[in-house]
Specification:
single chain, H-NS_C_dom, elongated, mainly alpha, DNA binding, DNA-binding
Length: about 110
């Protein structure tokens, strides 16, 4: 077979590769349908209904999302904290003075 492939032109090789890729994808799709049918059949045999969704869900991206501010310094509105991560210095200082965290809740 390698002798036959070596004799092909670039165009013929590209066409062969494209055809082989399409055929491989069709075989994989057919196999997937067979397996899903088997799973549903097995589930039905014990009285269970299954829903199988094809394709993968992409995880929700948190990139660029903003978290709302939960705490703000009443004396300086620029000082704000979302409640995530370490407490900012301004808040830690006020808590050490005896203030309650709820006093700064927005």
């Amino acid at each position: 077979m390698s002798e036959n492939i070596a004799a092909l032109s670039e165009q013929e090789l590209a066409e062969l590769i494209a055809k082989a890729s399409r055929e491989l994808e069709a075989k994989r799709h057919g196999k997937k349908r067979e397996v899903i049918a088997q799973i549903k059949e097995l589930a039905a045999s014990i009285g269970v209904h299954v829903e199988i969704s094809e394709g993968e869900k992409k995880p929700a991206s948190r990139k660029g999302s903003t978290v709302p501010i939960k705490y703000r310094d009443p004396t300086n509105p620029k000082n704000a904290w979302t409640g995530r991560g370490m407490k900012p210095r301004w808040l830690s200082a006020l808590l050490e003075q005896g203030h309650s965290l709820d006093e700064f809740r927005v």
